[in-house]
């Protein structure tokens, strides 16, 4: 089981503004902030999560990869819709409107957004179609 995952970003200001708003409908919030000074010059980091676990982390100090894909679990289809709307409002670019993706499985409902660095961020619900 994965405890946390993270990737580098071009800077923290734009991604922070994006993720603060885009992840809120999923109940995920900023839980941890590590400054450049705290790491001895090895980058600043933010940790997002819930229930005391900052399981999603972004940070500076390394080269930015291309094409990272992260999928966050949503408890229902309305949460998938809310994520998509919030992420667009936060400056994300649409990469797949909310809807069923039967090519994955009959009950897979997902929405895809490109974050400020072009990473493919998804909210997904695995449940009975509404």
Automatic annotation (TrEMBL):
Record domain VOC: where: 1-126
The organism's place on the tree of life at top rank: Bacteria
Stretches that traverse the bilayer: none
PROSITE patterns from the UniProt entry: VOC (PS51819)
Pfam family, one: Glyoxalase
Protein name: Glyoxalase
């Amino acid at each position: 089981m994965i405890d946390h995952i993270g990737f580098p970003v071009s800077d923290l200001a734009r991604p922070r503004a994006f993720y603060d708003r885009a992840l809120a409908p999923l109940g995920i919030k900023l839980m941890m902030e590590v400054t450049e000074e705290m790491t001895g010059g090895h980058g600043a980091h933010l940790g997002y999560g819930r229930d005391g676990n900052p399981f999603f982390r972004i940070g500076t100090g390394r080269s930015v990869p291309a094409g990272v894909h992260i999928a966050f679990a949503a408890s229902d289809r309305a949460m998938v819709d809310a994520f998509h709307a919030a992420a667009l409002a936060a400056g994300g670019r649409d990469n797949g409107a909310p809807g069923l993706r039967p090519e994955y499985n009959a009950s897979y409902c997902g929405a895809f957004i490109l974050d400020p660095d072009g990473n493919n961020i998804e909210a997904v619900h695995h449940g009975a179609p509404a």
